Amino acid sequence: MQTIDMETTALRDLNATLQAQAETTNQTTWEITNPKGSHAIAVGLDAPIDVTVKGSTGYYCAGMNKQATITVDGSAGPGVAENMMSGKVVITGDASQYAGATGNGGTLVIKGNASSRCGISMKGIDIIVHGNVGHMSAFMAQSGNLVVCGDAGDALGDSIYEARLFVRGSVKSLGADCIEKEMRPEHLTLLTDLLERGGCDAKPEEFKRYGSARELYHFKIDNAY
Amino acid sequence: MCGIVGLFLKDKALEPQLGSLLTAMLVTMTDRGPDSAGIAIYGEDNPAISKLTVQSDEPEQAFATLEKDLAAALGGAVHLRAKDTHAVLEVERGQLSAARALLTKIAPDIRVMATGDTVEIYKEVGLPKDVAARFDLASMSGTHGIGHTRMATESLVTTMGAHPFNTGPDQCLVHNGSLSNHNRLRRKLQREGVHIETENDTEVGAAYITWRIQNGATLGEALEGALNDLDGFFTFLVGTKDGFGVVRDPIACKPAVMAETDQYVAFGSEYRALVNLPGIEQARVWEPEPATVYFWSHQSPSTPTKKAA
């Protein structure tokens, strides 16, 4: 295992080192110590390596990730795993606002709570939150899956396109054009897989599914102010 | 942007370190606000005295005979402690408003930064580390304090545009965000007779809270009122004689992180600001909810009050 201490290594050097790891690398396990809330840790990675950040991070940790598995052993600041393409990001604590924003693929697991705007404009990412999510989560979500084992805040799924939202607890309010939908067998199968990937022991039957009513796809004069 | 920090001590043993802990937090937030910096610190409550923190761009001249002049006009004891461009005037308790009124006559060019029994406010243009060094903030002790690093968006980079803003005796406010209805609200408050000095949006927010309290609201009610009457983005941190309060607008896009241990409650715009506090690894760390007023007080149990968004 390789260890990079942020007390003695500059952020740019750390990211350059991790970004330089090729598919064929044999240095597959990395540990980053003393993050102390720094911004933009482990961004732009593109190799199947395993990176663990020992402590809490600031803005934009694990952004633009491809292939890598990145674990934050603590809490993550705003914009964690933004625009992920593939791979996996795991936060053992809480995540701040807009976690997993605009993600195209991969899996984001948040073992604590996520703050507001979790999964905003998600485009194919799977997000599994063990706790609660804040207001405006999955705003304009286009594709992918958001699983919330706790409660969801105000305006869940506002202006949603085709993403699927699964919530076990209460939903404070649904956003415009977001409705509860029936849970069919294929959704239970999908959710079983998502929960397993997220390391959740919740039962799929305990969840409700929400998605788009598809009323905003075309202009309707009733929607104008 | 802008950076906010706050530290409320539960453990008296940490009080001598308040200034140094808060200064380190403030300097960490330099990236969020390199234009100006300020700090409000609540010191020992001496029941015999109250304090005015005043500022002058020409302190040597302005402060030379101020102690004597104010004492003569007031007919009571005055003690002046000068620190760079600021000075703390200690007067007998009960003479605060008289002293303030006399200052506008005997020293009209002097700006009053703070009044109260325990609060002192220091703020200037410049990098947070330089501002902190000018006032030797790190050596100060106290029970709690709040600080601000400013990246100016709404008005000029001046001393008077720096935070914290004094909103009443022993009350002050720092702000991260920008208010969009401050011009209209400023005109409204001015019609009500409220004195507002600058074009700054936060000063209007502070004046709003002062005005609400003068009209009988509690600080908590004034902050809840702010959620209705202020349009724009804000995370406010409000200092009082007893403690501090936090409120975020319903959208809550301006960041806020809190940490609590048996020894303290700390606030930072980012977790980075908190990482060097003692025992932070074991602290409960969380984000304050939007549209919710939180208070921590030495006098009464802490209460978050949820306000409908």
Automatic annotation (TrEMBL), chain A:
<dbReference type="InterPro" id="IPR036485">
    <property type="entry name" value="Glu_synth_asu_C_sf"/>
</dbReference>
<dbReference type="GO" id="GO:0016491">
    <property type="term" value="F:oxidoreductase activity"/>
</dbReference>
<dbReference type="InterPro" id="IPR012061">
    <property type="entry name" value="Glu_synth_lsu_3"/>
</dbReference>
<protein>
    <submittedName>
        <fullName>Protein GlxC</fullName>
    </submittedName>
</protein>
From TrEMBL, chain B:
<dbReference type="InterPro" id="IPR017932">
    <property type="entry name" value="GATase_2_dom"/>
</dbReference>
<feature type="domain" description="Glutamine amidotransferase type-2">
    <location>
        <begin position="2"/>
        <end position="299"/>
    </location>
</feature>
<keyword id="KW-0315">Glutamine amidotransferase</keyword>
<protein>
    <submittedName>
        <fullName>Glutamine amidotransferase</fullName>
    </submittedName>
</protein>
<dbReference type="InterPro" id="IPR029055">
    <property type="entry name" value="Ntn_hydrolases_N"/>
</dbReference>
<keyword id="KW-0808">Transferase</keyword>
<dbReference type="Pfam" id="PF13522">
    <property type="entry name" value="GATase_6"/>
</dbReference>
<dbReference type="GO" id="GO:0016740">
    <property type="term" value="F:transferase activity"/>
</dbReference>
